[in-house]
């Protein structure tokens, strides 16, 4: 308890002594973690949106016109395919009814066809956009199937977008983590370097390495924690007004955005914890290395 | 805690032999002067005892324990039992006189109240109470030296290593410091101090270890010095 008090006082001395540097570190860490948080949230929302779009992707498979065909059997065969998520069967009369409903007042034109031209067909949902191509290939390979209709280009675009967005998020993640780590590392190194003589003296007169090291490690952890808290506050401050803006101007996105406050707050707490841990690990590494080299006897 | 040097040689990069083949034994409670001309290896000998440096050959043992084989984690605990006055004082420039002394005990988790008492005590012993809030840079060389002495006294060590502790002091102040060293020695503390000062050595007739170019040329009980 006594020791803790001494250590906290020493940490405070360090922070006050290098307060300009500390402030710069804190701001840099804050900005980088803010960017990290924002890109992560952006890509989470995009994922959310894409998975919504993907779940609405439909492949329509039309059977050959052959009255001897066992519909149940074909249905079971399709159901067994790897990429099928959900499936619905439409008989020719169901399909015609659907079509008539769609065409409204012009539906009379359909009466002129006489015999119903629409074959049995299946409406198949997939899990992910990239599954569509595989599914279509498999369906085309089935002799019972006459034609497959799907939104080919849209599928390709969506899966490409999803890949790019997760790649950007990954790059931003690495970039922010590396920059934050470097800044904290560098600041603590400067802090240590300017006190290298003191560190040697303290060790010489009987301070343990842990006692000497802890204030420096705490300094690094404190700076990055404060930076992370600033980032968290900045995210909360920017996110909800941003959401309101999007909901007002892009109403079709309304249901695809994460608006749950609890989720966002938990995300921010996670970010703050992550920032503090990052700072702790970085300062621990540099402090251990530095004190090792200083306390080594010639 | 007796100190034993067995055939100790210390060379510094690239090829300076600071000490050569030194063997000696210092019993607990002894008072030893280490004398010799500048560059003869006095500081090197003392720094081997405090484990600031390790021998290039031979063994330095304290309390029968080879210092080279001491675990790194045990070094601080060893040093808490060694009061050290370095030739260059080794004071922390950013701390006041008071803080420089207090922190040694703080690092040992001594409660604040005791730290305050003991710090006040040792600062008074060296007569620097009125300078307690100053930083080392604001003090004269002799005053800094006395701060270093006070700091070494603070945790009541059983071994006191002093590298020219009277080097910057006038005769009167030096005599005061010697009085303190004789007093702790009388209480059973081993004192090993290096010095150039003939008057001090000759005034008290203790054991004298003389070095020349890194070699031990004399080890005499009740010796004198006329370097
Ligand atoms: N860290 C070091 N690196 C290289 N050489 C060193 C080192 N420390 C001491 N020496 C050399 O070792 C020799 C002995 O030095 P030491 O400091 O022990 O002498 P000393 O007897 O204490 O001298 P003085 O009376 O001037 O303090 C000197 O030649 C010195 O230059
Ligand atoms: Mg010397």
Key descriptive features of the protein:
heterodimer; A: 298 residues; alpha+beta; Alpha-Beta Plaits; 2 domains; four-stranded antiparallel β-sheet; 10 helices; 4 strands; elongated; B: alpha/beta; six-stranded mixed β-sheet; globular; binds adenosine-5'-triphosphate; binds magnesium ion
Give me the secondary-structure topology:
The complex is a heterodimer of chains A (298) and B (227).
Chain A: H1 2-17, H2 19-55, E1 58-63, H3 71-79, E2 84-90, H4 92-103, H5 108-111, E3 121-126, H6 131-140, E4 145-149, H7 152-193, H8 196-204, H9 209-249, H10 261-294
Chain B: E1 3-12, E2 16-26, E3 31-36, H1 42-49, E4 57-62, E5 65-66, H2 75-79, E6 82-85, H3 97-106, H4 112-125, H5 141-154, E7 159-163, H6 171-186, E8 190-194, H7 198-204, E9 207-212, E10 215-220
Parallel strand pairs in B: 3-8, 3-9, 6-7, 7-8
Antiparallel strand pairs in B: 1-2, 1-4, 4-5, 9-10
Bound molecules: adenosine-5'-triphosphate and magnesium ion (MG).
Structure in words:
The complex is a heterodimer of chains A (298) and B (227). Helix content of chain A is 72%, strand content 8%. By secondary structure, chain A is α+β, with helices and mostly antiparallel strands. A four-stranded antiparallel β-sheet of chain A has the order 2-3-1-4. In chain A, helix 7 packs antiparallel against helix 9 and helix 7 packs parallel to helix 10 (261-294). The longest helix of chain A has 42 residues, at 152-193. Chain A starts with a helix and ends with a helix. Chain B is an alpha/beta fold. Chain B has seven helices and ten strands. In chain B, the strands form two sheets. Chain B has a six-stranded mixed β-sheet with strand order 6-7-8-3-9-10, sandwiched between helices. In chain B, strands 2-1-4-5 form a four-stranded antiparallel β-sheet, covered by helices on one side. In chain B, helix 4 (112-125) packs across helix 5 (141-154). The two termini of chain B are 30 Å apart. The interface between A and B is medium-sized, with 23 and 32 residues. Bound molecules: adenosine-5'-triphosphate and magnesium ion. Magnesium ion binds next to helix 1 of chain B.
